[in-house]
Amino acid sequence: MAYHYDVIIIGAGVAGLYAALQINRHKKVLILCKAQPWDCNTFYAQGGIAVAKNKDDILLHIRDTLNAGAGMCDTENVEIMSIQSLEVLDDLIARGVPFDKDETGNLLFTKEAAHSTNRIIHAGGDCTGRVLHSHLITQIPHTLWKNATVTELLIHDNRCYGVNVLTKRGNYNLYARDVIIASGGVGGLFEMHTNAHTVAGELHGMILENGLKLCDMEMLQFHPTVFVQTTRARKPLLSEALRGEGAQIVDKDKRRFLFDYDSRGELAPRDTVARAIYDYQQKYNAEVFLDLSMFREHFFEKRFPNIARTLHGFGYSCYDPIPISPAFHYCMGGIATDTNGKILGMDNLYAIGEAAHTGVHGANRLASNSLLEALVFARRATFEILGKEASTWKMREFQPRNDILECEYDGNLKQILRKLMWNKVGIIRKKSALLEALGGVEVMLQSHIGRLLRLRLLTAKNIIESALLREESLGAHYLVE
Ligand SMILES: Cc1cc2nc3c(=O)[nH]c(=O)nc-3n(C[C@H](O)[C@H](O)[C@H](O)COP(=O)(O)OP(=O)(O)OC[C@H]3O[C@@H](n4cnc5c(N)ncnc54)[C@H](O)[C@@H]3O)c2cc1C
After folding, report:
1. Angle at the Cα of 230 (from 369 to 310), degrees rounded to 5?
2. CA-nearest residue, atom 26 of ligand 1
3. Is the pTM of this model over 0.90?
4. pLDDT per position as a tens digit, 408-460
5. For a FRET experiment, which of 103, 163, 189, 315 has its CA 20 to 30 Å from that of 141?
């Protein structure tokens, strides 16, 4: 059976949902996501969405974003993002997203690291992603297939004719006039990460196997503080706002060792703190803890309800030392796109959200700019799709692939890949370790493996090769001898 759509959207995070919302119900749109719709990074976003507060703030927001990006940002796209943040905010308010407000009904703006002013809007306290996602999904007028894993992009010449998708009911080719990739980042490639389990860079691998380009994949952001006492690779994030409000990072003797690395201690920039913790753990084989005992329990539960709930779930209160580590968090690089999210070299294939490279983050992301990027470029991509003249493209049928998607030992190899990426392509990099990682990935690529693992390996290989090409430290790419 062949299915035909106007638009297929791969991914049901903020990028995919917001794109779908721009397209009216008379178009035939299909959203695909791997597990449940809430299994996405969007759902876990805590802090908020950065926006220019008003027209006067645009220049400052642009400047803060460019500074964080360490000279590697695409200035045009940064300008677009900041200017259009005003329209996106109006649109989200018109759609009734319940952002946090003061008693008189004015939006509350908070501040995060490296922003010169309070310009982060938030919802549900520290549950912005969950509130946003839950709100947008109820408004979607289109069909959504959950448990639907895209395994292939059906590409011929410069056109994407659709996707191959694996569902519980079987494997299908689905065809569409336009296809949007909103499949998120690459968290699943790392042993420690903050990302949803569905996010593993497979679509990035499909881009590479079709001879298309990924950009700046060496630029990976690591979060300094996640809770580590869980068996899963995904580790709950402990927001930087905790340190902003007084939480301390200590070793088992309660020593605040961060001051050995930077006089700003806990308030040093995110990268510095992540590197210091990682270095201390490696050098002294030490456990590291977050000390929250200065908070009164009542205050902690009110100010950080999400984090308090998570810690309680694992049997911890704010009076216990919380075992922490840094973890992979966000991918600044991605699928190379133009200013409307169209993938370079393609006629009708788009990438938006964390999957895409728009260049707005450069070598390092300014806090809370990622949800904004996803919203702004999702809108731009759909506007371009809707504005196109109805072209007379010719349908092309593809034979279903017979590739084995998963082999017996793929699970073990995935764990090996994760350790390799965490230990050798992580927070502190060495050329020799990168070369070892590359060798390891190449050996795995030669093994008897399933297609889904092969796609992850292609993405990992691209990250390592990009890191090897950048021979000096810059932004999130930190190289030592
Ligand atoms: C813990 C945490 C906190 C964060 N806090 C903030 C914050 O406060 N502010 C901010 O701006 N950013 C934050 N971020 C980053 C931000 O949440 C993400 O960059 C953003 O949500 C990405 O949205 P997305 O729609 O691109 O991808 P996601 O929300 O990750 O969605 C990806 C979708 O793609 C689907 N998918 C993946 N592969 C396939 C496949 N092969 N087939 C079918 N479907 C597939 C998944 O199932 C999922 O539906 C945070 C991230 C994390 C992890």
Report:
1. 60
2. 353
3. yes
4. 999 999 999 999 999 999 999 999 999 999 999 999 999 999 999 999 999 99
5. 163
- The tokens for 29 are 């749109």
Residue ranges, the chain, pLDDT below 50: none
Cα distance between residue 26 and residue 16, in whole Å:
18
Model pLDDT, residue 208: 98
Please, are residues 463 and 189 in contact by the beta-carbon 8 Å criterion? yes
SS3 call for 55? helix
pLDDT number for residue 391: 67
* pLDDT score at 389: 77
Phi/psi of residue 357, nearest 5 degrees: -110, 110
Q: How far is the CA of 455 from the centre of ligand 1 (A)?
A: 19
Instruction: Tokens for 341, please give them.
Output: 């999210």
| Strand duo 322-331 + 288-291: pairing | antiparallel
Domains of the chain (ranges plus CATH)? 1-219+332-402 (3.50.50.60), 224-327 (3.90.700.10), 410-480 (1.20.58.100)
Nearest CA to ligand 1 atom 35: 11
Helix H or strand E encompassing 90? helix 75-94
Please name the residues in contact with 36: beta carbons below 8 A apart, sequence gap of 6 or more: 146, 147
DSSP string, 277-288: HHHHHHHHT--E
Q: Which residues line ligand 1 (CB under 6 A)?
A: 10-16, 32-34, 39-42, 44-49, 128-129, 148-150, 182-184, 194-196, 198-199, 202-203, 237, 330, 353-355, 368-371, 374
Confidence (pLDDT) at 2:
67
Predicted pLDDT of residue 47: 84
Q: Of 150, 203, 161, whose CA–CA distance to 347 is shortest?
A: 161
Name the residue among 205, 264, 220 with its Cα closest to residue 422.
Answer: 220
Six-digit token string for 296: 């009164």
Q: In ligand 1, which atom is closest to the CA atom of 199?
A: 37
Say if CB 137 and CB 51 are below 8 A apart. Answer: no
What pLDDT is stored for residue 117 in this prediction? 92
What does each C-alpha distance from 301 to 31, 49, 131, 426 come to in angstroms?
A: 36, 22, 18, 33
One-letter amino acid for residue 133 of the chain: H
Catalytic residue list: 270
How far is it, in rounded angstroms, from Cα 271 to Cα 263? Answer: 14
DSSP summary character for residue 181: E
